[in-house]
TrEMBL record:
Ranges where the Glycoside hydrolase family 2 immunoglobulin-like beta-sandwich domain occurs: 215-333
Protein name, entry field: Lysosomal beta A mannosidase
UniProt source species: Kalanchoe fedtschenkoi
Keywords linked to the UniProt accession: Glycosidase, Hydrolase
Family stated for the protein in its record: Belongs to the glycosyl hydrolase 2 family.
Matching Pfam families: Glyco_hydro_2, Glyco_hydro_2_C, Glyco_hydro_2_N2, Ig_GlcNase
Gene3D superfamilies with a match to the protein in the record: Galactose-binding domain-like, Glycosidases, Immunoglobulins
């Protein structure tokens, strides 16, 4: 399909109709391909349909010339570039487009990123695209453009130093990739297998832009703040290029609006300036600053709204009309950071408010660079749903794309963006890597400055960091410090005083965000570059709360397990990969897990650490099969990550200013360090994190047994109460206390009372603890936290026979549908009758529940909306309620806790193959892996999209609920 480029001013994506072929199989050169002998059809060898944006390996997989490298051991069947040579993965990409420019218009071909270098041929004319994975290419092709059809061919070469993969694997292979300015993960790591083509390809957006005589280049927006954020100025600087042969008399316009509802917007500012530009000249122009009084501020997730304004800049040329325009979302916010004198950790402030950082490390969305807005939105919303407030883009990955930042802006995730340096590939490792980093330092700085210009207008971008566990070479580091120095206004916290900024801050390359030379320096880990991050393995949950668990104020990497659910294992591995590990009992009494070869290839990390941590799955009894193993793994995942976050939060400001978990997700089908798998199904750890990281949280300190309330919000709590109840396996409540009339200061973790139950007479070997923080005025729940506990030195083995219990449940639902998009409200009640009392909190009416629909992504979050309000908003978007409210009564003869209930959504099929994955993914749940004491009920909001024509069914499973209840929506 040929793309038609309009003669109107603007951008047209060139993402369709591309063909690809291996260069060694194409006898023609670029001139002939784009003049007399273009490819005839994708089915005529050696040509095939290309993945653009994408990679060579993605194209080969799309056309079934290689097996799925993410499935089982199939990556081993794909030839590695180290064995084939670079020519094997050097590919031609070809497309056509239609263009009919009017007079005095110009057309640019834009490649936002190519890996690694390329030659471009258009209608027989050659242009060379220089090296570097992280740089933009914009080519004025007006003079070689044809009216009508144009033929475009791009020959793409792999990185210059793709390296080899040592037999032992290792971090970044043999580290040769570090000599290039490219992603380093492609040579494999301890969490990922090598990418065979090293991500060669046209991997990011391709477009054509039409402008008039004057082109707008890289506007920079900066806001300055005064009088306690009531008086704010917007500064804007733009480069203007006159490509004509005559003087351009221009009207330059800036337009600031804010969306009110739907397509209605409010104009905040409209300003026009006159400027004259000589022929063939590029000038830099700064607008007079725009004044705003009390604009809505942009806040990180959990602290307020993510208010965004639309800023548009346009240029009109006398005698021509509109010549070019540019627009971008912009958020008014000020980000500061300094080394805290008390903890030694780096402390971040946003709009003057200290932020306790609870976030995660991010590699990239997909290892084959199959990047999309839809996948990015799911990824980022998952992080917001977990109540994170920061994502660190690790230096061995990529400079993340504007779409990634767009959704971080919307969902309130601060971003730590590293440049392309890692300790393993740039100074240490086995074998020892090149201490001088990339070979071409000038190219590195060119890519770095271009990346800054690409991303700097996003409010979510919080800081730049030179590299992972290493600093860039001295000359690069010095240059980056100079390029990214702070404007004086952003060096200090004082927002009062008169408007006295002498130099426009928008003239800086950035000037608003701190630059840190490396992830272990200047307030991170020990601050001196020593390898003091981690640990990365299974832990005793109580250890996270210990006084000496981690010695430094901000841990940039602390890792743990991440086994997915059984359905994912079956979806990503053949049957021989469904074998669970052997549990080998050692003479020390510890268990060593021995995984099967496919799990080992997929980097499985065990649930035991002999000598330090007993096997956390075996605590529930040895698993008998894959389903049993993965279910128990979700229990452990939940406990591990909840304890990790609660332990750090318990010491908020007293010992820590923040932490980042290694890592939140996997760019391939790995089996470690993740809250959701590559297929986008969440683990139990996702919901343990979601609970522990909520802005206001009630928790049990596992070390001191003191109940605490952590308030990371900006609001003090008054007239709140904590309800503490203990439940046994028979459904009785042997312990119940309420501590009322409490006040909890903002930005504090405060002790409430010591938990005394285990010290009472005849404590149960296994019991459940339910904590609720609620408003005394109306019993609305601020925080709910459910623990399953065993006595010191004990285990959870009594939970195994608890599986045989049959708990009575009442399940009801409301469903709302728009096309293939669904929002469902599920209500589950444990109707057990033998509770000694019925608490007024049992309805679990939450304050500001963060369960908003994916289809309603921009409004209030975290503490500003009731559940009922959510569904009123959803209802406006949907065609209506389907079949009214559906109610199911699930009878059961037993009484007790309905334990570890979890929903899933499946595609309904009359017939399906054995083992076929029927899950609908991704799905957003307001809660999952939850438990209900007798009489208690829970509302869960579920949103998802289905494949065209599919009929979804909601399924409920649980530890002691095996009805696998299927809830029909239609």
């Amino acid at each position: 399909m040929t793309t038609e480029i309009s003669a109107e001013i603007g951008k047209t994506l060139l993402h369709s109709g591309w063909l690809a072929a291996r260069s060694t199989e194409v006898e023609l050169n670029g001139v002939r391909l784009t003049t007399t002998n273009p490819p005839a059809h994708p089915s005529v060898a050696p040509w095939m349909e290309a993945a653009v944006p994408g990679t060579v390996l993605g194209t080969l997989f799309k056309n079934k010339f290689v097996p799925d490298p993410f499935y089982g051991l199939q990556n081993e069947a794909i030839i590695d570039i180290a064995d084939s040579g670079r020519e094997y993965y050097t590919f031609w990409f070809f497309t056509t487009f239609q263009s009919n420019l009017s007079g005095n218009h110009f057309l640019d071909l834009n490649f936002r990123a190519i890996n690694y270098s390329a030659e471009l041929f258009l209608n027989g004319h050659k242009k060379v695209l220089p090296k570097g994975m992280f740089r933009r290419h914009s080519l004025d092709v007006t003079d070689i453009l044809l009216d009508g059809q144009n033929l475009l061919a791009v020959l793409v070469h792999p990185p210059d130093n793709p390296g080899t993969i040592p037999p032992q694997g290792g971090q970044g292979g043999d580290h040769e990739i570090g000599k290039d300015i490219a992603a380093q993960y492609v040579q494999g790591w301890d969490w990922m297998a090598p990418i065979r083509d090293r991500n060669t390809g046209i991997w990011d957006e391709v477009s054509a832009t039409v402008t008039g005589p004057v082109k707008i280049i890289d506007p920079h927006l900066v806001s300055s703040f005064f009088d306690n954020y009531t008086r704010i100025y917007l500064h804007s600087t733009v480069d203007l290029q006159n490509r004509s042969s005559a003087v351009a008399d221009c009207s330059l316009n800036i337009h600031v609006t804010t969306d009110i509802e739907g397509s209605i917007c409010l104009v905040e500012h409209l300003q026009s300036q006159n400027v004259s530009i000589a022929p063939g000249v590029t000038i830099q122009y700064s607008f007079p600053e725009l004044f705003f009084y009390k604009p809505k501020l942009w806040w990180p997730n959990g602290l307020g709204e993510q208010s965004l304004y639309n800023v548009s800049i346009s240029v009109n040329v006398k005698g021509h009309g509109e010549s070019d325009y540019w627009n971008h979302h912009f958020g008014f916010r000020k980000i500061e950071s300094h080394i805290d004198s008390y903890t030694g950790g780096r402390l971040f402030k946003v709009n003057g408010q200290p932020i306790f950082i609870r976030g995660g490390n991010w590699i990239l969305s997909d290892g084959l660079l199959r990047l999309s807005k839809k996948r990015y939105e799911t990824d980022i919303k998952f992080h917001a749903d977990m109540n994170f407030n920061m994502i660190r883009c690790w230096g061995g990955g990529i400079a993340e794309r504007p779409d990634f930042y767009h959704y971080c802006d919307i969902y309130g995730l601060l971003v730590w963006q590293e440049f392309w340096i890692t300790g393993d590939c740039d100074g240490r490792g086995d074998p020892i890597s090149n201490i001088d980093g990339p070979q071409d330092h000038k190219l590195f700085l060119l890519c770095a400055t271009d990346t800054v210009k690409l991303l700097r207008n996003h409010p979510s971008l919080a800081l730049w960091v030179g590299g992972n566990e290493q600093t860039p070479p001295d000359d690069i580091n010095s240059a980056l410090k100079n390029y990214l120095q702070l404007h004086p206004h952003f060096k200090y916290s004082n927002e009062s005083g008169e408007f006295t900024i002498d130099e426009d801050p928008s003239k800086y390359l950035d000037g608003t965000r701190v630059y840190i030379q490396g992830s272990l320096w200047d307030g991170f880990a020990d601050g001196k570059g020593n390898f003091t991050d981690g640990p990365y393995e299974i832990q005793n949950p109580v250890d996270f709360f210990g006084e000496y668990y981690y010695k430094y104020g901000f841990n940039p990497e602390v890792g743990n397990v991440g086994m997915p659910v059984a359905a994912t294992i079956r979806a990503i591995m053949p049957v021989e990969g469904w074998q669970i590990p052997l549990f080998k009992k050692l003479s020390s009494g510890y268990i060593q897990e021995v995984p099967n070869p496919i799990w080992e290839y997929h980097k499985y990390i065990p649930y035991s650490k002999p000598g330090l941590v007993h096997d956390q799955i075996e605590l529930y009894t040895l698993p008998k099969d894959l389903d049993d193993f993965c279910l128990k793994a979700q229990l452990v995942n939940y406990i591990q990550y909840r304890a990790l976050i609660e332990g750090y939060t318990s010491h908020m400001w007293k010992r820590y200013t923040g932490f980042l978990i290694w890592k939140t997700q996997n760019p391939w089908t790995g089996l470690r360090g993740q809250f959701y798998d590559h297929l986008h199904d969440q683990t139990g750890g996702f919901y343990g994190c979601k609970s522990a990281a909520e802005p206001i949280h009630v928790q049990l300190n596992l070390y001191t047994y003191i109940i605490e309330v952590a308030n990371t919000s900006s609001n003090e709590l008054f007239d709140v109460a904590v309800e503490v109840s203990v439940w046994d396996l028979e459904g009785a409540c042997p312990y119940y206390k309420v501590y009322d009339k409490l006040t909890v200061p903002h930005k504090k973790t405060v002790p409430i009372v010591e938990m005394t139950y285990p010290k009472t007479k005849n404590p149960k070997a296994v019991y459940f603890l339910l904590l609720k923080l609620y408003n005394m005025s109306d019993y609305s729940i601020i925080s709910r936290n459910f623990y399953w506990m065993h006595l010191p030195g004990g285990d959870y083995k009594m939970l195994e026979p608890y599986k045989k219990k049959r708990m009575p449940l009442r399940i009801s639902s409301n469903a709302y549908i728009r096309g293939s998009s669904y929002v469902i409200q599920m209500q589950v009640q444990n109707t057990s009758k033998n509770s000694a009392f019925h608490s007024p909190t049992f309805k679990n009416t939450f304050v500001g529940r963060n369960g908003d629909s994916k289809l309603d992504p921009t409004p209030e979050r975290n503490g500003s909306r009731k559940d009922s309000g959510l569904f009123q908003r959803i209802y406006k978007h949907f065609s209506g309620e389907v079949d009214g409210r559906k109610v199911s009564e699930i009878n059961g003869p037993d009484a007790g806790v309905a334990f570890f209930l979890h929903f899933s959504v499946h595609e309904s099929k009359k017939e399906h193959k054995a083992g076929e994955d029927t899950r609908v993914l991704p799905v957003h749940y307001s809660n999952n892996y939850f438990s209900l004491v007798p009489g208690e009920e829970m509302s869960v909001n579920i949103s998802f999209e289905t494949p065209q024509g599919a009929v979804p069914r909601v399924r409920l499973d649980g530890w002691n609920y095996h009805g696998s209840h299927i809830h029909a929506i239609l």
